[in-house]
Specification:
- The chain is of the alpha+beta class.
- It has a single domain, classed as GMP Synthetase, Chain A, domain 3, CATH 3.30.300.
- The chain contains two helices and three strands, in the order αββαβ.
- The termini are far apart.
Length: 80
């Protein structure tokens, strides 16, 4: 059974909260912006904004975890 948009957003926020300590340990943070058309929009802030590893963190860390936990998610986009 597919979750409602509100249930999906709640689950996304819970998963982001689990990732937050790892980002904060390097001086960064993450904020949830929106979930629309099966895409999660986030904003990586702090040290994450200018980190050379941002693409790896986004695709192999954040996106992989969210898609694994919530299969209807098609991708994650970092907004400036």
């Amino acid at each position: 059974m597919e979750m409602t948009k509100k249930e999906t957003e709640t689950k996304i926020k819970e998963l982001i909260d689990k990732m937050r300590p790892f980002l904060m340990s390097d001086g960064g943070d993450i904020e949830f912006v929106e979930y629309s058309d099966n895409i999660v929009y986030i904003r990586l802030i702090g040290a994450c904004e200018n980190c050379s590893m941002i693409d790896i963190t986004l695709k192999e860390g954040i996106e992989e975890m969210l898609v694994t936990e919530i299969p209807e998610i098609k991708g994650v986009v970092n907004l400036p």
